[in-house]
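Hi everyone, sorry if this is the wrong subforum. Our group has a chain we'd like a structural model of before ordering constructs, and none of us has done structure prediction before. Sequence below.
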Amino acid sequence: MRATIITTKSADPMRKLITRRNEASLRSHGFDVSIITDNDTGKECFWQVWNLAVHLHGASPKDELHLFIPDDFDDIDTERMIKIHSEMNKPYAMNVINDGRVGMWSGVMKADRGEYFVSGMVDCGFFCSGDVIKYLEVPSNISTVDSSGVGRHITMQLLAERIPMYTPHKSLAWHGDHDSIMHPAERKTNPLISL
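Answer:
Right subforum, don't worry. Here is the predicted structure as tokens:
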């Protein structure tokens, strides 16, 4: 199992504490953990940071669990994530938090699957099977008009490959109403709060 936590150079002391706590928890559950620091390049260059994370995961068996999270996800339910992964048909990708978004960028309609639902989208906090890694690299020419474009690009790539994307009904981590480093103005209007 592999995990990457993406943090920012300007992260406040609380985010640094959360990152260290998440790292310790993931390692205690058998994850190989990498921490990548974004040097505050902003949304325009986030694709570079993302691609570094993808390259750290490399090629792997389809049954291996891969996790990508930002430094502001807290209290990760690692045991539940491992259980869900063990029961999933591969390939798949699943968001770590449920913030109410469904079908963003893809138009896919919500379809209930018990503990989780088909959401037709992933953002940059998700886990997946190893056979999905090869579809996660992002080109340098993505649109960054209203976001980093990374989540949108990955969603469209997985949709093209017919890889199902899910969201848990109950979030697998906590994400609150705090200042956003990547989207400060957007998150004041449209916060992403875990359900």
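For your construct planning: The chain has one domain: 2-189. The longest strand covers residues 2-8.
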